[in-house]
TrEMBL record:
PANTHER family cross-referenced by the UniProt entry: NICOTINATE-NUCLEOTIDE ADENYLYLTRANSFERASE-RELATED, PHOSPHOPANTETHEINE ADENYLYLTRANSFERASE
Enzyme Commission code(s) on record: 2.7.7.18
Pathway the protein contributes to: Cofactor biosynthesis; NAD(+) biosynthesis; deamido-NAD(+) from nicotinate D-ribonucleotide: step 1/1
Pfam families linked: CTP_transf_like
Species this chain originates from: Luteimicrobium album
Protein name per UniProt: nicotinate-nucleotide adenylyltransferase
Function statement: Catalyzes the reversible adenylation of nicotinate mononucleotide (NaMN) to nicotinic acid adenine dinucleotide (NaAD).
UniProt keyword Magnesium present: no
Catalytic activity as recorded in UniProt: nicotinate beta-D-ribonucleotide + ATP + H(+) = deamido-NAD(+) + diphosphate
């Protein structure tokens, strides 16, 4: 858990976060865990070629998604199969924006935070 993105403020990119974390802990080996669908898009991220120098990426499988690691450095990306749990951050945000419950999809504290601050409500949702 880190506050580097919160403390930096403004628009933030993964490359910025990884650079900050590496500066804070130069000897640490960083791991970036993300969904299999996102790992395939990583080549389009800001400064994508440098991401793999800063962290090892772990692509977690998602139900119904065929993972392709083509074009990604094999020594810097690992696939991790997890039991089928069809929960995505996009789906959680869409449910919250539609007024549907997200209990049991995210920790209780996250549900309370969403409700307290009215996240995903209104025209900006």
């Amino acid at each position: 858990m880190s506050r580097v993105d919160v403390d930096r403020g403004g628009l933030t990119y993964t490359i910025d976060t990884l650079r900050d974390l590496k500066a804070q802990r130069p000897a640490a080996e960083l791991f970036f865990i993300t969904g299999a669908d996102a790992i395939e898009q990583i080549v389009r991220w800001k400064d994508a070629e440098q991401l793999f120098e800063l962290a090892h990426f772990v692509a977690v499988t998602r139900p119904g998604h065929q993972l392709s690691l083509e074009g990604l450095p094999a020594d810097r990306v690992t696939m991790l199969e997890v039991p089928a749990l069809a929960i995505s951050s996009t789906g959680v945000r869409e449910r919250a924006a539609s007024g549907l419950p997200v209990w049991y999809l995210v920790p209780d504290g996250v549900v309370q935070y969403i409700n307290k601050y009215g996240l995903y409500e209104g025209p900006h949702a």
